[in-house]
Design goal:
The protein is mostly helical. It contains ten helices and four strands, in the order ββαββααααααααα. Strand 3 and strand 4 form a beta hairpin. The longest helix is centred in the middle third of the chain and has 23 residues.
Length: about 220
Amino acid sequence: MDHRPYKVKGNKTGVPCIRYADDIVLLAKSKRASKRLLESSTKYLGGKLKLTVNREKSRTVSVFAIRNFKFLGFALGRNGSGIYVRVHAKSWKKFKSKLKGLFSRRSVQSIKPNLEKIKVYARGWLNYYGIASMKDNIEDINGWLYHRIRMCIWKQWKKPRTKVRNLIKMGVPEDLAWQTGNSRRGHWFTTHTVTVNMPMTKERLISSGFYDLATTYQSVHVNY
């Protein structure tokens, strides 16, 4: 995607423009100027260039209005350091929903193939959105995904005796393994406990094929 501003043909003053295929964002300094620009550009595109302009999607809006402005899955933010690119809330929701579907706890018969599916999808997603500032968000979703994988593994073990036996094999003291393995708590709650987190470390999950999102994001984002 080419983010470089350029002068719009037919406009003598020239305005900053971001374009990808037939999606165009024209930037103005004020709401009043943006309305004039919308009117003139619509006439130019529809009249001189004979292009069909989508009237429902064509509107004036602040680029910092997270609920209203979205361009190719991105939004813009502003802080004391200046303006930055971020992932739109709808894109985050879609990303998490896709990950949830790829690692459904209703189908946990085989963990490694699902880990590979997550790797392929997440790698493509991060390569696309890596330009955005999202360190805290990606760490949150990374932690959620680790927890979900532990939960699916825990559910895969099914019987209490299997859980106890596997925990002991992974280094958990026998009394704690017995207590946790026979717990009547739900899978999501149980896999929040130290007894389950202690053997199922990040390092162990990564060696089993988990694609660490936070680590990958750091390397991708630096290269932009």
